[in-house]
Amino acid sequence: MKSKYDAIVIGAGHNGLTNAAYLAKSGLDVLVVEKNDYIGGAAVSRELHEGWLYSNCSYVCSLLRQSIHRDLNLTRHGLMIVPYSGTTNFSLNGNYIAEYGDHDMQYREIKRHSLRDADAIHRYETDLMRYAKLIRHFLLRTPADPTSFKPRDLGEMMFMAKKFAGMGEEQVYEFMRFMTMSAGDFLDEYFENDLVKALYSTSSIIGTALGVYSPGTAYVLLHHVMGDVDGAVGAWGLARGGMGAISNALAGALKEHDGEILTEAPVAQIIVKKGCAKGVALEDGREINADIVVSNLDPKRTFTNIMDAADIPSDLRKKAENFKIRGSSGKVNIALTGKPDFPSLPADHKLRNGSFQFLDSMERMERAYDDWKHGRWSDDPFIEMTQSSVWDPTLASPGHYFVSCFIQYCPAEVEGGWTPDKRDAFGKTVIDQICNYSPNFRDHIAHMEVRTPFEIENEIGLTEGNIFQGELTIDQLMFNRPFPGYSQYRGPVKGMYMCGSGTHPGGGVSSACGANSAREILMDLKRPNVVPEDDVDE
Amino acid sequence: MPMQTNLQAADTIDHVHEGVIYSPFHRRTSAKNINQQWSVWNGYASTKYYADAHLEYFSTRNTCGVFDVSPMRKYRIKGPDAEAMLNRMVTRDVTSQAVDTVAYNIWCTDAGKLIDDGTLFRVSEDDFWLCAADPNFDWLQLSAVGFPNLEITDISEDLASLALQGPTSCALLKAMGFSGIENATPFSIMRFPFGAGEITISRTGYTGDLGYELWVDPADAELLWDQLFSVGQVYGIQPLGEDSLEMARIEAGFLAPDVDFHGSLHTVDRGHDHSPLELALGWIINFKKGHFSGRAALAKEKAAGKHRRLIKLDIEGNKPAENSILYCDKGCKKTIGYVTSAMWSPVVKANIAYGLVEGQYADGPIWAEIYHQKELRWVRKLAQCTRVTKPFWAPERARQTPPSDC
Ligand SMILES: Cc1cc2nc3c(=O)[nH]c(=O)nc-3n(C[C@H](O)[C@H](O)[C@H](O)COP(=O)(O)OP(=O)(O)OC[C@H]3O[C@@H](n4cnc5c(N)ncnc54)[C@H](O)[C@@H]3O)c2cc1C
C-alpha cells in the first residue's frame, strides 16, 4: 500500500469494484478499501460450513450488464452466468402453480387454474416488456438533471423524451399510471386467479418495505424483470461459484489494470480540505491520500457516517437522514445432506430442481407485511427458496445441496433489539414454513446461516439491512436517486463521488452504478471515457 | 406460526403433461408421418410433412388432401347478447350473417390494430363458434364487457377437426354418404349424422381451392379419418402437413398470424403491429354497421391513406425471396419494406411473395434483395418484382355450387 493514490474507492462491493476497475483501466492508480476480510459486499460467496459454498446475500443474477461482463473480460476472470429453471409456488393443499420455460406448457399450467389467465399472460408480459425495454435504455446512462440547461443535460432530456414518445401517446399514459401503481392493482387488471396473481406478485416486494397493495410496487416488479440472460429479458441466471464469482471476477479485472484492494480496513472518515476530498482516514488511524474519493456505501451511511457534518451542506445531511432505506428482508442459507422432498410433486419431476415459494394469495403476503409494520418478523413468512447447487456443482459435493432462502418480511428493529435467540427464532419460523410443504426438510440440515436485517447491516454495512441501498420508490429513482440534485454521482465536495446501489439505476447486482459513476469521474478529469455503452435492444 | 397445510398426494394433482400433447387424430397422423417430422402448434404435435411434401401439396390442387386442424382454438359464444357482442368486436356485420354460415373475420383494438383473424360460425340465432389459430379467450372476455347475457366457453377440446381440400373433396364426401353436400355454397354449414352423433361440415378452408372443414366429436375422430382414407383411396387422398398447407395458403392469398402480421396484443414496440388496412383487409371492414372496436381509428387511417401496404408480388427468377428486404431501386438506396411470405409456386410456376411496403412506394418499382445458396455458397441477387392484385391461385370450382368436379 502506498500513501497516495489517484483514486480511493471505499467499499469492495461489486459496484465499488466495477468503479475501481474502470478507473484503473483508464490508467489511474486506484485503491479499494474494504472493511471486511472478504470482498463483494452483498455479492459474495463464503464457505461458512466446510464443503458448502453459500451465496450469502444476493443469489440470482439478471441485472448484470452484459456489456460490462464482456468489456472487462469477466469470463476470463472466472465468471460464468448459467441458466436455471422455474419456480413452483405451492398453495396450502399442495397444489401449485409453476413457471415453465416452454410457452405452451406455461399456458397449460396456468389453464389448470384459470383459462382466462392462461390467455392473459401474453398481454401481461407484452405490457411489462414494453416498460422493461424503455427502462433498459437508461441503466448505463447518467440521469439528466431536469433543472439544468447544460448541453449534456438537455441532450439527455431529449434522449429520454424521445424514448418515452417512441412508445406512443397512449402508452405514455399507461406507463405513468404503471409507475405509481401497486403491483396488486396492476395484476388485478390482467388476472382473476389468486394463485396466479400470487406467483407474479412476489418480485414486487422483494427487498421492499411495502406490501403488494402499496402504490409504487408495480415499479419494483419491473425492476426485477428489466434484466436479462443472453437477451432473454426478464430471465434470471446463477453465477457459477455463487454471486461472489461476480465480485471476484471484477477484482480480477481491477488487478489486471494494476488496481489494489486493501481488506480489513474500515474507513472512519473521508478527509476533506478546503472543500476538496483529499483521502480517507481508516478506523485504525492510518490515512491514505487521493484527490478522488468514491463511496460504495449507501447514501445514508456515506453522508451521516463517514463524512463530517461540517464538510457537507446541512440540506444534504437532512436528506441523507430522511433517506428511505428501511430493511424488510431476511436470508437463510442452508447446507443440506439430502435433496428436499416435496411430496406433492411426482418423483423425478423437473420442478423438483427449481425454486419454491409458498404463497396462495396476495392477501397472505399483505398479512405478512402487517407483521413487519408492527415491528415483528412475519409469522407466516414469504420464502423464495432457490436450490442453487442443483445447477451449480461447485457449491456442494455430489449428493449435498445448498439452498438459498430469501424472506419477507423481517424488520430492522424488533422490540428490545435483535439478539441471537430472536434471530434463531426467526430462522425457525422459516424452517417451519418450509417443513409444511417438505415435511422431512429439517432432517437434512447440516448447517444454516440466518441473517436478519441486523446481521446484514452489521456485516456488510447496508443501513437497516435494506438490500438495495435505499428503497426503490419513485421519489428515490432516476434523477431523484439518491437525492434531488445528487443523481449524477457527484458528492457535495470536489473529488467526492458515489458509486453504490443507492445511486441510479438502483439495487441489484448490475455493475451499472459503479460504471456510470466511473464515467462521470473520468469526464471531470477530462480523460477519455472507457466505460462501454449498454447492449440495449434495438 | 405459518399457516397449516393439508398436502394432497402427488397423484391426486392434475400436473401438466410435459412436452407435446396429441390431437384426437394423433394415432393416425403419427402412423403416416413416416419420418416423424413434427412441429408444435398450440402445444400439439402437428405434422410438418408426411412422406413427400411436393406430392402432398399437389393433392390440394389435383386430388384432395387432409390437414388436422384440431389444434385450432375454438370458442362458443352463446346467449341473447352474443350477436351484439360479436358485432362490436369484429369488423364485419354480424347482424346480417345468416344462420349456418361462416364468415372470415378480424378483430382489432380501439387503436385499430389487428389482434387476430379467424372464422365466425353462426350455428343458430344466438349461438356462434369462433375459430382462430391462436388463443383468444382473454380478448373475448374483454370484448364481452357490458354484455352480461351470454356465455363464452372454450370448446377447443370438444371438437376434432380436419380440413379436406382439393378438387375431389366434394366427390369424396358424397361417396362417404354425405349426400347433398354438393349443394353447400361457399361458407355454408351442413350437418349429417355421423358415428355416435353428428358431423358438421363447413365449406371453408385455407387453400383457396374447393374444400371443406369437418367437425366431429373427438370420440369419432379416428372413425372419420379411417373412412376418409378408405373411401378416399380412389379420390387420390393424401395427408397434408404444415409445409404443404403453408404453400397452398400463400398461393390463395391468405394471411398467417405471426408470419404476415404480428398480433397487436403481443406487440411490444410501436409500429410493429398492423392495421387491417395495411394488410389489404379493407374489404371486410364494415364502416356502415355502426360502432365496432377500432372503427374511429380505422376511419381516420383510411381517410389519410398513408398506411403501409401488404402487396402480392411476382418476382423474376426462381429463387424464393424469403426474408428479403425490398427497395424501390436496384441500387438498394431506399428500403421500402420487407417480404413476409415467399415461395416458388409449383402450380402456377411463378416466384411469388407478399411484401409489406411503405404506402407511397406500393405502385412504383420494387426490387427484392434475395440471398440463396449454390451448394452451400451464399449468393446475393436483386430481383425485380411485379405487383399482382389477384390471388395467385383461385380456381373457378372454389366458387361453384355444385362444384365442377362433383
Ligand atoms: C439478502 C440479499 C439478497 C439479495 N438478493 C439479490 C439477488 O438475488 N439478485 C440481485 O441482483 N441483487 C440482490 N440483492 C441486492 C444486491 O446484492 C445489492 O444491491 C448489491 O450487491 C449492492 O452492491 P453495491 O456494490 O452497490 O454495495 P454493497 O454490496 O453494499 O457494498 C458496499 C461495500 O462497502 C463495504 N463497507 C461498508 N462500510 C464500509 C466502511 N466504513 N469502510 C470500508 N468498507 C465499507 C461493505 O462491507 C461492502 O463490501 C440482494 C441483497 C441482499 C442483502
Determine the structural class of chain B based on helices, strands and strand pairing. Answer: alpha+beta
Bin the strand percentage of chain A: 15-25%
In CATH, what is the class of one domain in chain A?
A: Alpha Beta
Biggest sheet, spatial arrangement of strands of chain B: 10-11-12-9-3-13
What overall form of chain B do the CA principal axes indicate? globular
Q: Catalogue the unreliable spans of chain A.
A: none
Alpha carbon gyration radius of chain A: 22 Å
Shape of chain A: globular
By CATH, the superfamily of one domain in chain A comes out as FAD/NAD(P)-binding domain
At CATH's second level, what is the architecture of one domain in chain A?
A: 3-Layer(bba) Sandwich
Round the mean pLDDT of chain A to the nearest integer and report it: 96
List keywords for this structure.
heterodimer, A: 538 residues, alpha/beta, FAD/NAD(P)-binding domain, 7-stranded mixed beta sheet, 17 helices, 20 strands, 33% helix, B: 406 residues, alpha+beta, Gyrase A, domain 2, Alpha-Beta Plaits, Elongation Factor Tu (Ef-tu), domain 3, 3 domains, 6-stranded antiparallel beta barrel, 19 strands, binds flavin-adenine dinucleotide
Overall description:
Chain A has a domain at 4-50 and 58-81 and 240-322 and 463-524: FAD/NAD(P)-binding domain, CATH 3.50.50. Chain A is 33% helix and 18% strand. Chain A has helices spanning 14-25, 66-71, 103-111, 115-136, 151-165, 169-179, 183-188, 194-201, 217-223, 244-256, 299-304, 314-322, 362-373, 388-391, 420-437, 453-460, 512-524, and strands at residues 4-10, 30-33, 45-49, 52-55, 81-83, 87-90, 96-98, 228-229, 232-233, 237-239, 260-262, 267-273, 276-282, 287-295, 329-336, 355-358, 382-386, 401-408, 445-451, 496-498. In chain A, the strands form five sheets. In chain A, strands 1, 2, 11, 12, 13, 14 and 20 form a seven-stranded mixed beta sheet that branches. A seven-stranded mixed beta sheet of chain A has the order 7-6-16-17-18-15-19, with helices on both faces. In chain A, strands 3-4 form a two-stranded antiparallel sheet. Chain B is an alpha+beta fold. Chain B has helices spanning 26-32, 53-62, 82-89, 137-143, 169-175, 221-232, 242-252, 295-304; strands at 38-41, 44-47, 64-68, 73-78, 101-108, 114-124, 127-132, 151-154, 160-165, 189-194, 197-202, 211-216, 237-239, 309-315, 325-327, 335-345, 350-357, 366-374, 377-388. In chain B, helix 2 crosses helix 7 (242-252). The mean pLDDT of chain B is 97. At the A-B interface, helix 3, helix 4 and helix 15 of A face helix 4 of B. The complex binds flavin-adenine dinucleotide.
